[in-house]
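Dear Dr. L.,

I hope this message finds you well. Following up on our conversation about the binding site, I have prepared a predicted three-dimensional model of the protein together with 5-O-phosphono-beta-D-ribofuranosylamine. For your records, I am including the exact sequence and ligand specification that went into the calculation, followed by the structure tokens. Please feel free to forward this to your student if that is useful.
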Amino acid sequence: LKLAVLVSGNGSNLQAIIDAIEAGSINARITCVVSNNPDAFALKRAIKHGVTTVIHQNQNFSNRREYDSALVQILKDHEVELVILAGFMRLLSEIMVNAFPHAIVNIHPALLPAFPGLHAQKQALDYGVRYSGCTVHLVDCGTDTGPIILQAVVPIEHNDTEETLSARIQREEHRCFPEAIRLFADGKIQVNGRHVHISP
Ligand code: GRF
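The resulting structure of the complex is given below.
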């Protein structure tokens, strides 16, 4: 399966995916890493592993649709089959969503539909929930609203800060995201409306 990984920041999820591919546990290849941020550490990780990088900056485009049209072209040029949002801090328009039907996945640091959007870990702490976690889901035109593929739960401790909770959630992200991509690569994901069926 030909993957693109879209990033904006640290890229620890990108690293987990690269590591899983290099270990032979995912039958896929990253054809390109695309960043909207030229300073993203994720780009260094990609280069270190010989993965092609593309910097696709927001400010060169007057609106989201134009940005996304150019992004679709970049991804089609790389023959991408599955688009992975790994800390990509931009919402996608219907231009991207329609160009890759049921083929864009995101990871969110909460148990959706709780706490969508930014600062999900802080939202969970402020609300006072006892458990949070991460969600791998398909991307639609809403914010963190697409069909859910996998989730993992973590407990919230009484002395947690945003940092300690984020670190606990990230350990689960680094396990769940490669697992979800492996399921795609093995053809085990079927989507029926909101419901994602995973073959055994
Ligand atoms: C992760 O916490 C993910 O849930 C969110 O953005 C963060 C990206 O982290 N969507 P990294 O860049 O993969 O380290």
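In brief: The CA atoms of residues 39 and 86 lie 16 Å apart.

With kind regards,
A. P.
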